[in-house]
Amino acid sequence: MNTPRLEARHLTKRYPVGGRKGSLLHAVDDVDLVIQPGECVGLVGESGCGKSTLARLLARLIDPSEGTIHLDGHDTTALSQAAFVKSPDRARIQVVFQDPTESLNPSFRVYRSISDPITRLLGVEDTGELFDRVHRAADLVGLPRELIQRYPHQLSGGQRARVGIARAIAVEPSLLILDEPTSALDVSVQAVILRLLADLRERLGMSYLFVSHDLNVVRLLCTRIVVMYLGRVVEVAPTEQLFTAPRHPYTQALVAAIPDPARRDEQRPRLDGSPRSPIDPDPNTCRFHGRCPIGAERCTQEAPVLRTMGDDHVAACHFA
Amino acid sequence: MSALLAIEELSLVFRTRHGTVRALEDVSLTVDRGEIVGVVGESGSGKSVMAYAALGLQDAAAQVLGGRILFGGLDMLNAAPDVLAATRGREVAMIFQSPRTALNPIRKVGQQIADVLLEHTTFRGAALRAQVIEALSRVRIPDPERRAEAYPFELSGGMCQRVMIAMALACSPALLIADEPTTGLDVTTQAVIMDLVREMSRTSRMSTLLITHDLGLAGEYCDRIAVMHAGHIVEIAPTVELLARPAHPYTRQLLASTPTPRTTIADLVSIPGQLPDLRQELPACRFSARCERHIPLCDERPLPWTVVAPGHAVRCRVPL
Hints:
The complex is a heterodimer.
Chain A: E1 6-16, E2 24-35, E3 40-44, H1 51-58, E4 66-71, E5 74-75, H2 81-84, E6 93-96, H3 100-103, H4 110-122, H5 127-140, H6 157-169, E7 175-179, H7 187-204, E8 207-211, H8 215-221, E9 224-229, E10 232-238, H9 239-244, H10 249-256, E11 307-308, E12 314-315
Parallel strand pairs in A: 3-8, 3-9, 6-7, 7-8
Antiparallel strand pairs in A: 1-2, 1-4, 4-5, 9-10, 10-12, 11-12
Helix pairs in contact in A: 4-5, 4-6, 5-6, 6-7
Chain B: E1 5-16, E2 19-31, E3 36-40, H1 47-54, E4 62-71, E5 74-75, H2 81-87, E6 92-95, H3 99-102, H4 109-120, H5 125-138, H6 144-147, H7 157-169, E7 175-179, H8 187-204, E8 207-212, H9 215-221, E9 224-229, E10 232-238, H10 239-244, H11 249-257, E11 306-309, E12 312-314
Parallel strand pairs in B: 3-8, 3-9, 6-7, 7-8
Antiparallel strand pairs in B: 1-2, 1-4, 4-5, 9-10, 10-12, 11-12
């Protein structure tokens, strides 16, 4: 049995709520996640469901309240977040952030944006080696070399997205977390970046965790998709199966909501209303209750756990 | 029957310190009663400038070089300010992207809807209050009496957009201009909001001009779609016809770069090159530098429209 690239167990993040002593906001609640070498896993869910918090936990940008994360067999949660920053494992997991306009330092030229993590995480000080590594990363993402001395504001949106990817892969990570990497881009540029990401994964053998709200985009790159709702994983399935035979009512609503000109005259089920509060949720009630079209009595007496639905497919619903 | 909104051969430039930006050139578009017309294009294509112009709203730096905008017979570009003010909000209303910033953060949402009614109707006192509640319940906001007393920050993004729509529809306008109304909302919320817009058009014969970058969304909800590129409308057709038989090379590439529930990563096509700099001297066809079908004839002015099917026109010398 191979060692998974990433293995998270019972990962939980709770935040104290200001002004309400003893109350806790359950941002991520008891999440298990395994990513195999070379695998691309999609993470979807509505805003506020905890997908970004989960991504930040996995990248060790924040400390979990409970649970463990193993990266290539190393327990990264054994170290505090502050100590992890200095550990050699820091380079193994890198994040490509949502908006390259926001996430690049505006006063750094492209060269420094890419070289900075190489110096900090790999300790490369030699000017010649640094130069080679920066250029190799720029070549990999198809960034023209003449742009390396420019500032972010002198680049187009697509070029900035390439810089964001170049600085993440420059330290040769084994897992890349992509947090909505194309949501700020026009479709024609998005297409280029998606193809680049698919190509890089093949060439460099990295694993991806692809966080996005756009199911049509997630579908293109991922072999398996994890659906979150209010801090919990509610369904995990191979991509095609998730789209053709979703089992959890939330996933069903999510798939039905994808705009599709081919189904323009069809009446489709709609999910109305807002999610319940994530503060001190009732441990015995399904988080989706109140918005769920099923909403039976059992759903308020016993919170559903993930059950197997067939090969590699799990869902957390009593009626799935 | 004449159209409710007719934009006729509109050309508009922005005079800036960095030169003259040729934002719209010879743009024509009509919207009939009860029709939903989509305007699709990438950022910088001029779709929002056109929408604002249709309301008689132009930036101080904007200069109209030619053309007319007729709304129910009213010349929007030359009407007196008080006539325009009476028309906006009553006959034609607009909803914007990011509803939370479009709403006044320090007034209750019920008061903000009442403001519109006070301006344009004779409802006062209890009748005014009843109209506000009616406006909120029409967009299916649960518990409208209580929600009328809420401030925007107390409502979710989807709920704020419903308030915006309630406000826009309060005076039963003949035309709704929706500028990226669901960008930034969850896909499930987007579906509910767009269903609502469609239902309003169907039941009250309201016309809608939907500005969006999302061809999939326009494809599902619009009767006709106009495709914009670099300040030109390059193609206009009934939705089903446009999606099945795009005639402009740009439309075809835009369709091929938009992920759908059926595309694979190998199908995904990117559009070579980028939008031309609108401050420079531009060729007759602004897509010519990016077009594989370019022939010398393409550079001759004026660039004519070709009707390829009933209601389907394309501005290209060598249509597909």
